[in-house]
């Protein structure tokens, strides 16, 4: 793994070589991921992993023509070949009036903000094994748990360096510690599986192994003896661990590339209500120790906290430079980057504004569904039609009842977002964080 300074030097050299070879503009991005992990099952060591990968990507522009290449071989001779190849590719590529680097006057020029996303403590394999055993032991200790798919602990470190030919150079690194368990409850055909996990930037923020394991075991036991429910229309309440997928659909619908392709069910809703007026959707790339915190975006633009939805109103699209040019707007600092051309995405997202407790949210539900797992990908991003398999628990007279499986929930995301009600139990555990959510009038297909 290169150091951050070495990665910047390598990227700068590649960009300079591309310019010498005839590129009008270029950028290079370096990425490296190193990880280690230990998996146990039934109290025995099952797997020990240690991996490291790095790559560098080069994008060049010859007029309005562009091309991208990447390589995991960072040897100078290979990179020379990379430059020759990508210049030749760009000269044969079709013209794109919207292609180009980010606007130079918008590049990040200030010192990178401190995000506290790097942990200097690298765990030894023995420590990972101890944590993995502890989390699985806690899960297996729950009464009713009969088997295990395993428990695991891991550590990862990622580095990013980006250099552009028009004046940006930046790099940062981040770490992650993770812990998980997956167990089964019951016997034979009636067995049920569930899991629990947690990931944090720093070890001191990682949830205790016994808490994660106990939650995994309790979830599996709680799913025993599921029943079908009669088809109909009823309120659906989403557990926070699955409710965040709804916000994921909203994010996808407001991304610049989706809008330019006219492949979004929110195509005409910029500046219009998309959520109830009490709710705000916030993107915070500078969240301290956030799982997706980043000081700059994939094109070298500064990142900043932004209210994507403010008082229910969709404030803007999420734009990289290409989609911004196509729409006649300014890029928003939401470009993402792999080895090729930029994409679009958010960082640390949360939905706020709920005032009722989760208990109050279901208190008036005479018959409804509390969803803890979603299955399948039945979402049409163009129309917003939504249909997914689900499991969870029946709600009767304001209380959670028996387990439910093999049902389908359906609706349209536009209507679902308009009826969204949020609880006040927001916590920050994922990249997208939501409280318990309620949507009335959803169609349930059961018996």
Automatic annotation (TrEMBL):
Domain annotation Metalloprotease TldD/E central: ranges: 119-224
Metalloprotease TldD/E C-terminal domain sequence ranges: 231-446
One family name in Pfam for this protein: PmbA_TldD_2nd
Domain Metalloprotease TldD/E N-terminal: 35-90
Family matches, as SUPFAM superfamilies: Putative modulator of DNA gyrase, PmbA/TldD
Similarity remark: Belongs to the peptidase U62 family.
Protein's name in the database: PmbA protein
Source organism (scientific name): Sphingobium lignivorans
Organism lineage: Bacteria, Pseudomonadati, Pseudomonadota, Alphaproteobacteria, Sphingomonadales
